[in-house]
Amino acid sequence: MAYFNVTGIRMDKIEQFERMLAAGQDNALLRFSLGGLMLKHGRFLEAAVHLRAALDQDPHYSAAWKLLGRALLDSGDEKAALEARQAGIGVAKERGDIQASREMEVFVRRLQRRAGDPH
To answer: Residue 44 in contact with residue 24, Cβ under 8 Å?
Structure first.
């Protein structure tokens, strides 16, 4: 969906969020949203940067841990993806976010099997 700034210039969501960030509106939700959009558009390394920034601001953001794992895997860094998801499982369990915990556990098991680790 396109958005228009005050001068009527078309902006996409990524541009809109980047402008908000540049204007000093930095927060975990904005970084999570920007990371998710970057991931959706195949900009995996940039997604990881924003998702890590979201987690710096709120280390208990289980959805950000989940997306960070996906971004890292898609960027080719399986080890970091596994570490992110393992950290996310702990956070999700601590928060009672059972669905996110289960999804990340499945992800971890698949990565471990792929790497030949039976655990």
So the answer is: no
Q: How far apart are CA 50 and CA 63, in angstroms?
A: 13
Q: What is the pLDDT of residue 112?
A: 86
Question: How do residues 33-92 score in pLDDT, each as one tens digit?
Answer: 999 999 999 999 999 999 999 999 999 999 999 999 999 999 999 999 999 999 999 999
CATH code, domain carrying 78? 1.25.40.10
Q: Within a domain: residue 17? A: yes
> How many domains, in total, are found in the chain?
1
Tell me the C-alpha distance between 103 and 85, whole Å: 9
- For residue 110, tell me if it sits in a domain: yes
Q: In b/e form, how buried is each residue of 81-110, taking b as 16+ CB within 10 angstroms?
A: bbebbbbbbebbbeeebeebbebbbebbee
User: Strand 3-4 to strand 10-11: parallel, antiparallel, or no bridges (unpaired)?
Assistant: antiparallel
